[in-house]
Amino acid sequence: MVAGRVVRFDGLRGYGFIAPDHGGEDVFLHVNDLRIPEQQVRPGLAVEFTVEEGERGLKASDVRLAVTPDGRPVTPPNGVARTSSPGGGRHADDDSLCDVLTTDEYLHEVTEVLLAAAPSLTAEQILAVRRRLLQFGKDHGWTED
Q: Above 90 in pLDDT, residue 80?
């Protein structure tokens, strides 16, 4: 089994890509090769999978949630994966597989992650981290106003 993280996944089309932790070329992911609920698949999700040679290159099969030695998910499922952003970040005719979030959506997601990862952070610390991450997100095209 190879470990990696989902780079992107389009639930409407049923496919996406995984970046192997060891580096190298991203691996194609198809919904039929999932051993976890499709609704859990989202960018950043840690998975384990087998690599096969497909018709067009490397293909992931037997894709399952990566777990720690005690059986807990490396990245906990967060419910439903996004296929479009309600604030209008993605449009029906957009062919890309990556979501672009509005600033408010991005800040909400960042806040939830920070609270889950480090519940002892103060409000001041959370605001400072959010400001830096928002700028980082804007610099990489992950957010739009």
A: no
